[in-house]
Write a structure and sequence with these properties.
The protein is of the alpha+beta class. Helices cover about 45% and strands about 15% of the residues. The chain has seven helices and four strands. The chain has a four-stranded antiparallel β-sheet, sandwiched between helices. α1 packs across α2 and α3 packs antiparallel against α6. The longest helix has 21 residues, at about 5-25. The N and C termini lie far apart (about 45 Å). Bound molecules: flavin mononucleotide. Flavin mononucleotide binds near residues 87 and 138. Flavin mononucleotide binds near residues 139, 140 and 176.
Length: about 190
């Protein structure tokens, strides 16, 4: 193989990898891992906006869009939030945290509203991953949700749903697993 052919083959391989990573939704879903260690690299506002945009376009019952967000980059506020959870080290090491609330004044059915916010959060996690940004959904902090409202001084109608820590991932192997379909489907026939 001459050097021209070699470059061509390598380019095709790289394109193939990019296509697999960025365009196949099932690939993105399966590849995404919770990231709990971030590098010092900042997350620019363009990228952050794209992630929020994915959340904004989640489906919701009656299209009521009950999600609300607070963006936390400030070290002192991050530290105050970090004190409310045993996963505080993640909040502190992430350059950006999206604090996700449900606006109870926009709510029409609590279960459906919470499900919609789950979809909103997952949209953001997947979009982050597709952009090379690491993220993790933090729920343990809900045990101190009233304190979080106080720290962020948000309306009393806003109820904490999750914190999403975001940043560029420290490179390392991250593994996870899932139950097989046959354990999840009643009368499995596929
Ligand atoms: C509702 C919810 C709450 C979670 N809370 C936390 C948390 O407080 N701390 C944490 O480190 N990870 C938390 N996670 C991340 C899970 O541990 C993680 O998604 C799961 O272990 C599967 O790993 P994977 O995301 O890499 O596939 C939470 C995930 C969900 C969906």
């Amino acid at each position: 193989m001459n050097s021209y052919d070699l470059v061509k083959v390598l380019s095709l391989k790289i394109i193939d990898k990019i296509m697999k990573t960025n365009t196949n939704i099932l690939g993105i879903i399966k590849e995404r891992r919770s990231v709990r260690e971030f590098t010092d690299r900042d997350l620019d506002n363009e990228t952050l906006k794209e992630i929020l945009e994915a959340g904004r376009w989640a489906p919701s019952g009656l299209n009521n869009q009950p999600w609300r967000f607070v963006i936390v980059k400030n070290d002192k506020i991050k530290n105050n939030l970090a004190e409310q959870t045993s996963y505080g080290y993640i909040i502190n090491s992430a350059p950006v945290n999206i604090i996700v609330f449900m606006d109870k004044s926009a709510s029409y059915d609590k279960i459906k509203d919470i499900l919609s916010i789950g979809a909103c959060i997952q949209n953001m996690l997947l979009t982050a991953h597709s952009l090379g940004v690491g993220s993790v959904w933090l729920g343990e902090i809900l045990k101190n949700k009233d304190k979080v409202n106080e720290i962020l001084n948000v309306p009393t109608d806003w109820e904490l749903m999750a914190v999403i820590a975001l940043g560029y991932p420290v490179k390392k192997k991250r593994k996870s697993n899932r139950k097989p379909l046959r354990e999840l489907i009643y009368n499995y026939e596929i």
